[in-house]
Amino acid sequence: MSVKVYRPVTPGQRHRVGATFEEITKTTPEKGLVVAQNKNAGRNVYGRITVRHRGGGNKQKVRLVDYKRDKNDIPAIVTAIEYDPNRTARLALLTYADGEKRYIIAPLGLKVGDRVMSGSQAEIRPGNALPIANIPIGSLVYNVELSKGRGGQIVRAAGAAAQLLAKEGEYAQLRLPSGEIRLVQQKCMATVGQVGNLEHSQIQLGRAGQKRHQGIRPTVRGSAMSPRDHPHGGGEGRSPIGMPGPKSPWGKPTLGYKTRRNKKTDKYIVRHRTVAKR
Fold first, then answer.
1. Which long-range contacts (CB under 8 A, 24 or more apart) does 50-56 make?
2. What percent of the chain clears pLDDT 70, i.e. is strictly above it?
């Protein structure tokens, strides 16, 4: 993939950088691999807003992606590379030897006509899924399972890749894109390669309307609100916030406040993404 810079014919195009979509080979999704997407504008079952700044946006369909890669030892051919509006990566449509079709996250370098396979006997090739025990040390992987049979949960965004550092006992050490080094069981599955669409981080929307198409509503600064609407609101003049430290809209401290609460998995983290935490 490459990016294109627009001529500044309009103010919205002055700073816009978009994708060329030159790697896309099919524009309509596979009919049997999509479901309708029900939007709730950030509201829970009680109608209360639990995720702010959500609403509107274009109508989208959810692609059913095969994260488990459990169709073992059956070769497949890459039929198409498709765009997915719900993720930053591209999707590859696989057609297996028995006729079944599935979506996977497309790795860097995967093209139409390539052969991919999953299972312990698969080759070390981008797009092939194997148990971590069968992958050489130093390899780049993505779509990594955290528990066997659950499907890939981490390293799925555009350009992401984890590096296999070491193997010891039943665990392997992976360096995640955040810099964190984590223990993962060797029997868990991972896909060889790096997620494609590397230039996604260079894309600039250029105008507010593009964000609205994605279903994201405007975000207002807390200092521009009234005191009853936000802890930063009110006050005389434009002081930073008028208090010793910043707080969230609900009065909780945010600067330097630890948000990680899952202590059950602390034993699997060899090195945190920020060394200052430990």
1. 52/219, 53/216, 53/217, 53/218, 53/219, 54/215, 54/216, 54/217, 55/215, 55/217, 56/212, 56/215, 56/217
2. 98
Residue 177 structure tokens: 């894109």
Tell the CATH superfamily of the 3-201 domain: Nucleic acid-binding proteins (2.40.50.140)
Residues 6+ apart with CB under 8 A from 56: 41, 212, 215, 217
The whole-angstrom distance between residue 84's C-alpha and the CA centroid of its chain comes to: 12
**pLDDT tens figures, 105-123:** 999 999 999 999 999 999 9
CB neighbour list of residue 220: distance below 8 Å, 6 or more residues apart: none
pLDDT single digits (tens) 50-88:
999 999 999 999 999 999 999 999 999 999 999 999 999
CB 186 within 8 Å of CB 170: yes
The pLDDT value given to residue 191: 97
Rounded Cα–Cα distance for residues 86 and 161 (Å): 19
Q: What whole-number distance in Å separates Cα of residue 198 and Cα of residue 158? A: 6
CA distances for 233 relative to 51, 219, 251, angstroms: 21, 15, 12
The C-alpha atoms of residue 9 and residue 30 are separated, in whole angstroms, by: 37
Q: How far is 161 from 181, CA to CA, in rounded Å?
A: 13
- In angstroms, rounded to a whole number, what is the distance separating the alpha carbons of residues 99 and 101? 6
